[in-house]
Write a structure and sequence with these properties.
single chain; mainly alpha; 2 domains; two-stranded antiparallel ribbon
Length: about 325
């Protein structure tokens, strides 16, 4: 839907709107507006999905990228399940028991470092076993509601007693971690549009940048998996606190299909019979044009200017 616009951008340009919308999620949490939190999470996830797909397609262009995909998963769902194979990636259990080890987790780089390292050694085996069992059962591919259910099963008990602001802090932290990995990637390879990425790959064959590229790409995959886990956590908590009778497993799907928060006009998916149609929520076209983007930019600039003029009228 947005590829015609996003393919002309660098990674950092695609990710920037995700960080911007993450700040509005934090604002919704701060103001205890749980419906707004869900709405803004929908905006964040839309940009995250755009970034993930562009990143995945670019990985397929280089030998190093394809090798990373083979080892760690071909798509975002795979990356999530590689890190969270039905169990917590830290303690290796479901339900997660990390809350009982909170002091060890928080002080893992200091006075509790030895205990944390001992925990890391014991958690590898159950996580590997959980992943092998998941593959054996044919559960290595899941829908978004199924992923939400999985995370609820792992972390639901912990999240029930957590404050929503603490969950939001973790969410924003992970958005920042992705930003950091993107900055590393662009420091190694430079910024590229989709079209010139292939040229860069061709002219740098044999140059020793690809080992570093693979390491950073793996880190980026892991951080993107963490972003999704905290999206599910915020949805779970916002639904728990909201006066609306929403289920966290399908709240974002209902948002995208216009079944909830109709007054906000967040309708970008139409399901008719056996066809799912994705459209831009502004121009309602299946392929959003650059004209639509410019129109939205002009509108936001105008809205922002009008707000500033009212707020600082005393200056004139």
């Amino acid at each position: 839907m947005y590829g015609i616009n996003d393919d002309k951008k660098y990674y950092s340009d695609i990710w920037l709107p995700a960080t911007s919308h993450a700040s509005t999620v934090a604002e919704g949490v701060r103001l205890n507006k749980h419906e707004d939190t869900i709405y803004y999470l929908g905006n964040v996830l839309a940009w995250v999905l755009s970034f993930v797909e562009r990143f995945r397609l670019d990985l397929n262009v280089s030998k190093a990228g394809r090798s990373t995909l083979r080892k760690h998963g071909e798509c975002w769902t795979d990356w999530i399940l590689h890190k969270f194979p039905g169990v917590c990636h830290i303690c290796g259990k479901s339900p997660c028991i990390c809350a009982t080890l909170r002091d060890v987790m928080e002080l893992r780089k200091g006075e509790r470092k030895f205990e944390f390292e001992s925990l890391m050694k014991t958690r590898e085996k159950p996580i590997k076993q959980a992943y092998a069992k998941m593959v054996q059962r044919g559960e290595a591919s899941r829908t978004m509601p199924q992923l939400f259910d999985m995370f609820k099963e792992i972390y639901g008990g912990t999240l029930w007693g957590m404050d929503i602001s603490d969950i939001a802090f973790h969410f924003v932290e992970e958005i920042g971690e992705v930003s950091k990995e993107i900055s590393y990637l662009e420091a190694i390879c430079g910024g590229h549009t989709k079209d010139d990425w292939g040229n860069y790959v061709e002219i740098t064959k044999g140059v020793r940048v690809w080992d570093k590229y693979s390491i950073v790409c793996l880190g980026l995959m892991h951080e993107l998996a963490d972003v999704f886990s905290w999206v599910t956590a915020l949805c779970f908590k916002a639904c728990q606190l909201s006066s609306e009778q929403w289920q966290s497993r399908d709240v974002l799907i209902k948002l995208y299909t216009g079944q909830i928060l109709q007054d906000k006009g967040r309708h970008s998916v139409t399901i008719t019979g056996d066809r799912i149609k994705f459209v831009c929520r502004y121009c309602e076209e299946e392929t959003c044009s650059s004209g639509c983007v410019q129109k939205q930019v002009r509108k936001r600039l105008m809205d922002g200017r009008n707000e500033m003029e009212k707020k600082f009228a005393y200056e004139s």
